Amino acid sequence: MGDADATPLRDTSGSRSAGRPRADAADARLAWYHLLQVSSRVIRELDRRLELEHRISAREFDVLINLDGTSERGLRMTELANAAMLSSGGLTRLAGRLEERGFVQRDQDPADGRAFYAKLTERGRRLLTEARVTHDAVVHDLFGAYLPAADIDSMTRALARVLGPDRRT
What we know:
Elements: H1 25-54, H2 58-67, E1 75-76, H3 77-83, H4 88-100, E2 104-109, E3 112-120, H5 122-142, H6 149-163
Helix pairs in contact: 1-5, 3-4
């Protein structure tokens, strides 16, 4: 689907999810397409600006933000991989790079020698504080500036319903 205004094919299956009314499948497909396009555009610009201004990628920022506000112990690597939507191997490599640069510390779980916890270092907290300014500016410039507050609130509620009560994948 290269043209954002193109009308997707209609779904004529008539299926319903648990008897709840839902958006027409073609409308949902178009909304999904636009959501992906906006997301891709914002992530590309985040990657560019975070690298330019802070020498970190959007993926690295995501790991740092997921570690922010965690307990003194941090997060188990498996929990962090799930939160950052990375494979275990991918997170291990990324966390290793962040650790080498002094932004993250990994500690072995004393109760389970096979498991590790990751937590932000003070240097990582300072970087995150600075990078959040860039992150928020990009999100505002490419997303928030186009929508009134009521639309943002409505979208936030709608996407939270899609995610369900767990909120994490």
